[in-house]
Amino acid sequence: MQNSFLLYGANGYTGELIARYAGEYDLQPILAGRSEEALLQLSAKLNLTYKVIDLNDTPALVAALKEVKVVVHAAGPFQFTAKQMVEACLKTGTHYLDINGDIAVFEMLKQYDAAAKQKGIMVMPGVGFDVVPTDCIALLLKKLLPDAVKLKLAFAMIGGGLSHGTATTMANRLGEGGAIRKNGKIVRTSLGKNGMWIDFGIKKLFVMSIPWGDISTAYFTTGIPDIETFAGVSPKTYHLLKLQPLFNWLLRTSFIRNFIKKKINKRGAGPTDEMRNKATGLVWGQVTNAAGKTALARLSGPEGYTLTLHSTLLIAKKVLKGIAAPGYQTPAKVYGEDFVLEIPGVKREIISGD
C-alpha cells in the first residue's frame, strides 16, 4: 500500500502516539514490536494490522521490511536497537527513520552512509523533537550568517513530562557527563559545565549545557565547527548537577542504574493528552562568526512528544512520496530550514541577522 509503513515499537508511549495520529496524515502504519498482547490491544483499538517481531530475529524482521518502503523505528533505547534495524533495512532496501536523540547512535548510524547510498535508501535518525526543531534552527542560522564558527542551541519545555522510554534512555547514560563539538570534533565535558539565562520570547528561562543530539547532527547539517547544546532546568537543579562529577563513578554502576530504572517502571507511560496539550516547547539558537557578529532565532510550538508525532508522520509521508535522499541524512539537510513550520502550532522568529 502507498500509504503504509512499518512502525516498530508501536506499543511504546511515542510509538502509540504516532499510530494514533497516522490517520490524520492519510497513513496506515503496520504496528510492530515484541509484545503480542500490547500490539493486539492497540490493533483492535485503532483497527490496524500488526506483526510480532523480535529485533534479534533477523529473518522475521527482513520479511516484514520487504513489504514496506519505510520503517519508523520507535523502540529505544536506540543504543541497543538501532544497529539491528538499520542492518535489516540495508538487506531489504527499506528507508530507515527513527526518533533517537543519542549522540553515540547518530555517530554510529553515520557509518552506514556509503552502504545506504549503494542501496539507494535514506538513513535518517532524529525525526522527532530530537532533532527536527533544533536542526531547522541551526540551518536557518547558518544561512543568515554563512561564515559562522560557533553555534549554540537551547530548548525548554513549559509543562509536559518524560515518557518511560526517554527516562530509561537517560538512566542508561547516567554518570557519562556532557559533550560539545570543538574544532569539528566531539569532546567530552562535564554535564552542565555552562549555564545561562535565555529569552525564549514567551519567557526567560535558565538552561544548562547537555549532550543533545545536535552535537552530532548540527555539524552534519551546517559544518559549523563549535557547537554547544543546552536544556532548560531550574537554577537549583543546575547547582546540584555541578557536583555530579564527584559521583559519576557511582552513577555508572549497574546497581544505581537498575535501581532508578525500577523506579521509572512504576511510573505511567508518559504525559497524558491533557498535559501534552497544555505544554509548550521552546527552541532558541545563536550563531557567531570570527568577527563576533551574531544571528539569533527562536521558535515555539507543541511539547516534545506532540511535535515528534507530527514531524515523524510528515517525514514518513514525504519518504513514501519519494522525497528522500540516499545515504545518512538529517531532517533539515533534506527538507530545509522551513520544514519545522509544517508542524501544527509552530511559530518562528528571527531576532537578528541579515
Question: What does this entry look like structurally?
Answer:
The chain has a seven-stranded parallel sheet with strand order 3-2-1-4-5-6-15, sandwiched between helices. It has helices spanning 13-21, 36-46, 58-65, 78-92, 103-110, 113-119, 132-144, 164-172, 214-222, 235-241, 248-251, 254-265, 273-278, 304-320, 331-335; strands at 4-8, 28-33, 50-52, 70-73, 95-98, 122-124, 148-158, 178-182, 185-189, 195-199, 204-209, 226-232, 280-289, 294-301, 327-328, 347-352. The protein has two domains: 4-128 and 306-335, NAD(P)-binding Rossmann-like Domain (Rossmann fold), CATH 3.40.50; 132-304 and 341-352, Dihydrodipicolinate Reductase, domain 2. The protein has 354 residues and is an alpha/beta fold. The chain is built from 15 helices and 16 strands. Helix 4 runs parallel beside helix 5.
- Would you count the extended β strands for me? 16
Secondary-structure arrangement, i.e. CATH architecture of the largest domain: 2-Layer Sandwich
- Rough outline: globular
Strand content: 25-35%
Helix content: 25-40%
Q: Descriptors for this entry?
A:
354 residues, alpha/beta, Rossmann fold, Dihydrodipicolinate Reductase, domain 2, seven-stranded parallel sheet, seven-stranded mixed sheet, 16 strands, 40% helix
Sum this structure up briefly.
The chain has 354 residues and is an alpha/beta fold.
Topology:
Layout: E1 4-8, H1 13-21, E2 28-33, H2 36-46, E3 50-52, H3 58-65, E4 70-73, H4 78-92, E5 95-98, H5 103-110, H6 113-119, E6 122-124, H7 132-144, E7 148-158, H8 164-172, E8 178-182, E9 185-189, E10 195-199, E11 204-209, H9 214-222, E12 226-232, H10 235-241, H11 248-251, H12 254-265, H13 273-278, E13 280-289, E14 294-301, H14 304-320, E15 327-328, H15 331-335, E16 347-352
Parallel strand pairs: 1-2, 1-4, 2-3, 4-5, 5-6, 6-15, 7-12
Antiparallel strand pairs: 7-13, 8-9, 10-11, 11-12, 13-14, 14-16
Helix pairs in contact: 1-14, 3-4, 4-5, 5-9, 7-9, 8-12
